[in-house]
Amino acid sequence: MFDSYDNITARLRTSGDYLWPLALRLVLFWEFWEAGTKKLRGENWFADIPWADWQMGFQWPFSAIPTELNWLAATWGELTFSILILLGLLTRFAALSLLVITVVAIAAVHWPAEWDSYGQLWEGYVITAKGAGNYKLPLLLALILLPLVFHGGGKISLDHLLLKFTGRDSYTSDRIGDGIGAAMVFAVMGLATIFLLPAWGISFFVMAVILGLIPALRQ
């Protein structure tokens, strides 16, 4: 029975290398492409928010940049990186860039302006605004981006085609679990939280530095 189960799961893992990254990429492409084109046409409801309110919501270093420039960068970032996601080209870089755009948007617009406890913060985990934030949808998009950051675009992607073209496709099965790998995980988590929960983000970055230095100190 265990052998049959293991054979099934082995085949699911193999087929999953083709299916789930492509499915995520298609969904994410459409979501960010639609958001970018609406911003470009001025149809996005964010366009109705006064520039001053946007500027107040931006965290450093984006707060030091003119709001119009932030808006332009977000618009073309969503359009450009969504196309890269669709093609599966530079997938990890594109997904990480969209993660930053999404988190900054959550902090600027969707995050509650004031909250005194995590219970109160949780009230903002909704789709529609109720005075306590409405970060549910962008947070889900941010979470969906994480598998592409860590696992790439899958076997139906230009990234994989380039690996085969350069004779490096055999390395896709390599797994290295060490302090540097753990440091990269904490660095991504720090990047994903620094604009929303600064204390968390700083803690994650500190852990990333510590874990990254351990291999060097051991030598």
| SS field, number of helical segments | 9
Describe the largest sheet.
Answer: none
Q: Which residue ranges are poorly predicted, with pLDDT under 50 across at least 5 consecutive positions?
A: 50-56
The residue fraction in helices comes out at 55-70%
Class of secondary structure makeup? mainly alpha
Cα distance spanning the termini: 46 Å
Number of domains: 2
SSE order, one letter for each helix or strand? HHHHHHHHH
Strand content: under 5%
Mean pLDDT: 84
Structure summary, number of beta strands: 0
Radius of gyration from the alpha-carbon trace, in angstroms: 20 Å
Shape: globular
What can be said about this structure in brief?
Helices cover 70% and strands 0% of the residues. By secondary structure, the chain is mainly α. The protein has two domains: 2-174, no CATH class; 177-219.
Give a description of the structure.
The chain has 219 residues and is an all-alpha fold. It folds into 2 domains: 173 residues, no CATH class; 43 residues. Helix content is 70%, strand content 0%. It has 9 helices and no strands. It is globular.
SSE layout:
Blueprint: H1 2-41, H2 51-57, H3 67-87, H4 91-110, H5 118-122, H6 136-151, H7 158-165, H8 179-193, H9 198-218
Please tag this protein with its features:
219 residues, single chain, 2 domains, 0% strand, mainly alpha, 9 helices
